[in-house]
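Subgroup meeting minutes
Present: P.N., E.W., G.H.
Scribe: E.W.

1. P.N. recapped why we're keeping a running log of single-chain structure predictions: easier to compare across weeks, and new members can see raw inputs and outputs side by side.
2. G.H. added today's entry (289 aa).
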Amino acid sequence: MWRLLLLTIIATASAQIPSLGWCPDFQAMANFNMNRFLGTWYEAERYFTVTELGTRCVTTHYTATPEGRILVTNEITNSLTGFKRIMEGHLQKVGREGEGRVMVKYSSVPLPYDFEYSILDTDYDSYAVMWSCSGIGPVHTQNTWLLTRDRLPSLAVMQNAYAVLDRFKISRTFFLKTNQADCTILPEPAAVSELKNADVPVVAEEVEKEKEKAVEQPVEKRVDPEVKAVEPEERSAVPAEIAAEEPNKPMQVPELIMSESEKKEEKIEKIEEPAMMAETKENKEAPAQ
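Output recorded in log:
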């Protein structure tokens, strides 16, 4: 009895769901294609685990090397401090050929360990259901993860993943949603980035101004209500005195506008006309001989 209780406590401390009995005989996915499974997966839901208590933005990257190895990188962010913890390891295929059973050997943690799990089903493009179970005697522990390609998956994608759980009769009682909100960091404005890359000291105020410019929206020009617009004054070609005396009289406009040469000829005629009149007068007054 005490031994069973001790095993139960150990199973709980290992951050999985403890149960009595032997591990269920769940068959991993057949004809599993590892190349299509590579890439980035986001943790959408999982069983309660102590190791992931108070975490968010859990992400796993599967990358193939030219040598044929498959590297695994887990990124886990602390919800309180915001610090990111990275666990690195490599993946190996186990079980029968083409079966979705894999083992991950982590080497970047204080104590390296191996972790084996089965991929029950995936469509490679939107969701994947991973499951693990380990037992000691009549006590076993299970863990299940729902992974998605999108950080915030749609309801239709989650419904497909839930259908896999129902097919294997896996209870969703202990499932918890992983917080995947506010995981991305917006890039800095281009001007600030260029200054930093050029090793130019940037004052904090200038950085804030650049950020404000990056998000500034066009603002309509404001008009001060106290300042009245000055309308342009209309001026008339008619003198004000004449317009006041005869407001209804139409203004006489010369029919023709004389050119400069015509104006000169008119002046000459005006000068010559008095002289001719004087000469004619003298001729009249002179006595006849």
